[in-house]
Each structure stands twice: as structure tokens, then as C-alpha cells.
Amino acid sequence: MFTGIIEDIGKIKAIRQGANSMVLTLSSGKITEDMRLGDSISVNGVCLTVTSFSGEDFTVDVMPETVKATSLRSLRVGSSVNLERAMSANGRFGGHFVTGHVDGTGTIVKKERKENAVYYVIDIGETLAKNCIPRGSIALDGTSLTIFGLEGNIATVSLIPLTHQETVLGMKQAGDIVNVETDMIGKYIFRSMEQTNKKQTLTMDFLAEHGY
């Protein structure tokens, strides 16, 4: 489990490409400080397992399904990635509950600076948009953000200067792909309501009526 508060920007040092899988070697002095074999690490929002490490480098396996479902397939040697270690039980919990199980990808439609904020307008597709609400949480490349605009498939988020500077989102432009994980609680509610009454449209009034 992660919080979506990015700890470091790492670099891809090597990629061993399989027919449908990948083995990534990454470099990050901060992430490897207390690393153990088998640790879970969020790489651009994807939960991966440490299979080996030495000094500032560590290696993770990426299974075929993960390659297909995420933006990791577009990584190259030298690419920058967001990194976060699994949530510590004895620390403050910022962000929101992020599992590292990416739901799909979105495309940045527009990026615009407004005073001290940078707005990102992102097409997340119809399926993912169903699990989102305005002012709800969303993780983009593993970064915990708040949706402040939602129209159809288009979600808008705003980054403060620190988030823009300290995550790979700041390097991305219109046309770039981001990994998307919608809010875990929202997904369970949507699934529950969908199974309860498949013909009922999920609305705020419907949720309130059923005690959510």
C-alpha cells in the first residue's frame, strides 16, 4: 500500500526486454537506503517487487499483463520515473490509499500554468471516468492528486509547484501517457451499486439514498 506522495525521481539504468515482459534496473539513492529483497516499490504508480539490489541500483520484474496495461512499456534507458516505498505504519499518512494496481492509462490533453498552479487536463477514458467524482482522489503516475474538474472522460487536476518540480509529471506535456489508478473506495462503491441494480444509474442522489 502506498500514499501517492512521491519520494524520489529515479532513472532507468537498464532494460532487459522479454517477448512480453521486462526486467528493469533503476537507480535511486534514497529508495535503496533501507531496501530489502521482496520490498514493494511504486514505479510510476505501478507496484513492483524488488528482486535484487546493490548500492543505489535495484531490479524489478514486470509481468506481461503489467506491460500491456501500463505506460511502463514506453520506458527507455535514461527515463525518469516516480518512486515511492510502501507506506510505513509509524509515519503520517498523507495523500490517499494507493494500491499500485493501475487501472489503465490516460493521455494529457492540455497543460497550462495558472499563477502558482499547473493544470493538467487528461483524457482518462469512459471506463475510468465512471469511478471518479469531482473533488475525489486519483493517482497519476503514482502521484496523489485531487480531481477538481470532471466532464465526460476528461479529468482536470492541479499541481502545486513542489509536486510539479519533484515528480515526473512536471516533465510531461500534452500527448504524453500517464498511469491512472482511481480511488479504491470509489471502485468498490461503484461495483457494489452496479451489482445491486444493473439498471440503476449511479448518481450522487442514488449513493446518498443507499447510505454512502
UniProtKB/TrEMBL annotation:
N-terminal signal peptide: none
Entry's Gene Ontology molecular function annotations: riboflavin synthase activity
E.C. no: 2.5.1.9
Pathway the protein acts in: Cofactor biosynthesis; riboflavin biosynthesis; riboflavin from 2-hydroxy-3-oxobutyl phosphate and 5-amino-6-(D-ribitylamino)uracil: step 2/2
Gene3D superfamilies: 2.40.30.20
Lumazine-binding repeat placement: 1-96, 97-193
Alphabetic keyword roster: Repeat, Riboflavin biosynthesis, Transferase
Enzyme class: transferase
GO biological process, one term: riboflavin biosynthetic process
CDD domains, A to Z: Riboflavin_synthase_like (cd00402)
Pfam families: Lum_binding
Catalytic activity, as annotated: 2 6,7-dimethyl-8-(1-D-ribityl)lumazine + H(+) = 5-amino-6-(D-ribitylamino)uracil + riboflavin
Domain Lumazine-binding: start-end pairs: 1-96, 97-193
PANTHER family to which the protein is assigned, alphabetical: RIBOFLAVIN SYNTHASE (PTHR21098:SF12), RIBOFLAVIN SYNTHASE ALPHA CHAIN (PTHR21098)
Functional description taken from the UniProt entry: Catalyzes the dismutation of two molecules of 6,7-dimethyl-8-ribityllumazine, resulting in the formation of riboflavin and 5-amino-6-(D-ribitylamino)uracil.
Oligomeric form and interacting partners: Homotrimer.
NCBIfam families linked: PRK09289.1 (NF006767), ribE (TIGR00187)
Identification of the protein by name: Riboflavin synthase
Organism for this UniProt entry: Peribacillus saganii
The gene coding this protein: ribE
